[in-house]
């Protein structure tokens, strides 16, 4: 088998960083971690032993806000003084090129700080005449420069612009086998609790609707729930897809913490956030590439005590998450 073919068949590697704290701790960085991850396309939360969402949590879930698709927009309009004055200087504005492949196409991202990130091929780079640095992906160059430099609908009225609402799905998972977790044991403890890594893999199986019982006749998956585990009668799963801002995710995380204000059967809840696979950055201004999978996500496990685990993952060639 040739070397390129072997590399294609290898399981993609990734970097996974885990940290533990308490949401009320004065040095907790959970909000900063969320704000630093600007471009989010899917948010999922899982609540064991829950049949109906509390109204405050449901209200936040169904109010993720509109986002807009602007077609055939010249990039220079994002550095026009009128745009900078109308949107960048008055607050946070997020923009990301749509339907582009980060390792092959020219892409751009406008951060809420007002900085424009470009990832372009060699020809475009030379035409622009900007200063940049070589990308670690596909021989591209990445250029960064600061842009110190109405509504979107009216501002872009001369272009094709469409308003979109995030798509929300709710489901109840029956008889779900869940790993046993201990907030003080990130690495787990034999016969007592599972590790953060094992939980991370288990969540991937749950979100992918994979059977967890490792039946001998299954040709799809031999995965099974890590041990020790417990059987939950039901679990509530909600998934939101779209262009989801960090501020909305923080509101959702706050409500998941407030879920434990009253006694609940659940020992913990999870909040998983996936970034756009073809975003030129992951956290803050860290360069991101697709490679084999475009991994770019984080997961909170919030315990009844409001201790939490935060797991941050990217592809092996990306910078390590903060």
UniProtKB/TrEMBL annotation:
Which is an annotated GO molecular function term of this record?
Answer: ribonuclease MRP activity
Gene Ontology biological process: endonucleolytic cleavage in ITS1 to separate SSU-rRNA from 5.8S rRNA and LSU-rRNA from tricistronic rRNA transcript (SSU-rRNA, 5.8S rRNA, LSU-rRNA); tRNA 5'-leader removal
Q: Which domain of life is it from?
A: Eukaryota
An example of a Gene Ontology cellular component annotation for this protein is: multimeric ribonuclease P complex
User: Which Pfam family, giving just one, matches this sequence?
Assistant: Ribonuc_P_40
Q: Which InterPro entries match?
A: RNase_P_Rpp40 (IPR013893)
**Protein name in UniProt:** Ribonuclease P protein subunit p40 isoform X2
Q: What is the lineage of its organism?
A: Eukaryota, Metazoa, Chordata, Craniata, Vertebrata
The record's gene field reads RPP40
